[in-house]
Amino acid sequence: MVGIMSNRRSLRFAKTTCPVCGSREVARDDHKGDLLCTNCGHIIVRTETRAVGKFDIAQHLKRNGRMDFESLRHATGASEDKLFGVVRSMEEMGLLSEMQGQYSLTKKGQRWYRQRLGQEWGY
Ligand SMILES: [Zn+2]
Fold first, then answer.
1. pLDDT tens over the chain, length 123 residues
2. 39/72 same-domain check
3. How far is the CA of 41 from the centre of ligand 1 (A)?
């Protein structure tokens, strides 16, 4: 198979204004995922897709008991799409249960959390 390795960056213009020079010619660098101002060269690191881990979510639920999606989002600082994905996979693993929009840890989820906590502390 012949692979063509290309270092050519594909730039697409984004709907963002550069915070440094105010230029509207801000492009998305598909190679790295950051936004680049083509006027002054300032790199705007993407923040809108913040990831979150299962452990973080479990920790907040353990602390607060029940939480709805919005409070989980505020507590973890995750973006909606990322949080939604992790919450769904935790539901599929049986770690989370949802009732009337409120998420809580299942028995299995609490066990999982304790095990992970043990690993964090090196037991
Ligand atoms: Zn700029």
1. 444 444 455 567 777 788 889 998 888 866 666 788 899 998 877 655 667 899 999 999 999 999 999 999 999 888 888 899 999 999 999 999 999 999 999 999 999 999 998 876 665
2. no
3. 6
Residue 99 is classified by DSSP as E
Q: What b/e sequence results for 21-52 when a residue is b if at least 16 CB atoms lie within 10 Å of its CB, and e otherwise?
A: eeeebbbbbeeeeebbbeeeeeebebeeeeeb
**Against a cut of 0.90, is the pTM above it?**
no
- Ligand 1 centroid to Cα of residue 46, in Å, is 15
Domain count, the chain: 2
For residues 40 and 58, membership in a common domain is answered with: no
